[in-house]
């Protein structure tokens, strides 16, 4: 069985972070075929959710991965710091400072202060991320993981929604406003990824894809997490060209997402909300796409044949990340599906 020396994961926030946590658990406990505690994991995180708020640069997906792997996450919420307090938010509200719908926790603000100061001093987002991770990815937690932003350039997802009061009948809002203020409760007409065409992959991203023994698309949002990473010029080509097998896990179980708003995002780009449609949207590598294999949940076992017809090797396994063991089993099944001789 080939040894997995390096695994690269293209991750969003909560879904991707939980998957990587389970993957690490599986590598350490020896349940991922070919993997071991020495397997190096590189996480390339989406940065198109990033924005500036109250003068601070906030990178939700990078922070969710960092806090999750570093055991600083609020597990219930899935994002932000554990044991968080909200005094700064209350004080800002007392000043009438907008927007009041986006709350930053007091502990979390420290991260954004460090990041913002370093960016303003001229460091790149990659350098800042590396510095922040020195605290979180330690020998105790998250050892052997490297976290890279997808790009050091500003890339921002915006969403067009219907607005009868606007002369054009529509309004474009930042992804955070769509998700946090509008709670993704109104249809997304279009998703625009501002700055993407001019962005370049952050240092190490293309190398991590080319030099991997396995590339994984975790159960992250296919449009605004994995889609935006693949959309950074050069990344999709690197995934298509890598000698490593590429495997993905469906974030859609049954007829909807498990959490979040993948259904709204898929609808906005005209993709049916089903596990197989997402796999076919990514496409088989041999037919111009990025996947060699795709896992769907047991409940979607009847969709395996459709995927295989589209050239994607597929299998149905339990895909609920209910605990570390269950998630490690998903990582093991993903590796088994595509690493030759591992099944
Ligand atoms: P975000 O940036 O915080 O939205 O996180 P991601 O993009 O990484 O992941 C969001 C996706 O994770 C959603 O589409 C969810 O459906 C998916 N997800 C969350 N928990 C689970 C789970 O237990 N199983 C599966 N299959 N998908 C999940
Ligand atoms: Ca996100």
UniProtKB/TrEMBL annotation:
InterPro entries assigned to the protein according to its UniProt record, in alphabetical order: CofD (IPR002882), CofD-like_dom_sf (IPR038136), FbiA/CofD (IPR010115)
Alphabetized GO MF terms: LPPG:FO 2-phospho-L-lactate transferase activity; magnesium ion binding
Documented EC number(s): 2.7.8.28
Coiled-coil stretches noted in the UniProt entry, renumbered to this chain: none
Entry keywords, A to Z: Magnesium, Transferase
Class of enzymatic activity (EC top level): transferase
Entries under Pfam families matching the protein: CofD (PF01933)
Protein name: LPPG:FO 2-phospho-L-lactate transferase
Source organism phylogeny: Bacteria, Bacillati, Actinomycetota, Actinomycetes, Propionibacteriales
């Amino acid at each position: 069985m080939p040894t997995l020396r390096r695994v690269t994961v293209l991750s969003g926030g909560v879904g991707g972070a939980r998957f990587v946590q389970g993957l690490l658990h599986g590598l350490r406990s020896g349940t991922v075929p070919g993997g071991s505690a020495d397997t190096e994991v590189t996480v390339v995180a989406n940065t198109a959710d990033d924005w500036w708020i109250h003068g601070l640069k906030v990178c939700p997906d990078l922070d969710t991965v960092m806090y999750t792997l570093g055991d600083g996450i609020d597990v219930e919420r899935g994002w932000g710091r554990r044991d968080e307090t909200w005094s700064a938010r209350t004080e800002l509200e007392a000043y009438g400072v907008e927007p009041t719908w986006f709350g930053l926790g007091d502990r979390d603000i420290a991260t954004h202060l460090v990041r913002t100061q370093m960016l303003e001093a001229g460091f790149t987002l990659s350098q800042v991320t590396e510095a922040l991770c020195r605290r979180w990815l330690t020998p105790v937690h998250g050892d052997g993981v490297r976290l890279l932003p997808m790009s050091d350039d500003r890339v921002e997802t915006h969403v067009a929604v219907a607005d009868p009061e606007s002369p054009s009948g529509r309004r474009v809002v930042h992804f955070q406003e769509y998700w946090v203020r509008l709670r993704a409760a109104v249809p997304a007409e279009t998703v625009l990824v501002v700055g993407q065409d001019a962005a370049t992959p952050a240092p190490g991203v293309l190398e991590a894809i080319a030099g991997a023994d396995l590339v994984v698309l975790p159960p992250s949002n296919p449009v605004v997490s994995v889609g935006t990473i693949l959309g950074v010029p050069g990344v999709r080509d690197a995934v298509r060209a890598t000698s490593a097998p590429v495997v993905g896990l469906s974030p859609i179980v049954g007829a909807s997402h498990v959490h979040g708003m993948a259904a709204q995002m898929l609808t906005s780009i005209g993709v049916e909300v089903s596990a197989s449609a997402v796999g076919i949207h990514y496409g088989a590598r041999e037919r111009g796409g990025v996947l060699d294999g795709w896992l769907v949940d047991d409940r979607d076992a009847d969709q395996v044949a459709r995927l295989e017809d589209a050239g994607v090797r597929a299998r149905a396994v339990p895909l609920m990340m209910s605990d570390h063991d269950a998630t490690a089993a998903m990582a093991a099944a993903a590796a088994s599906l595509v690493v030759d001789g591992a099944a």
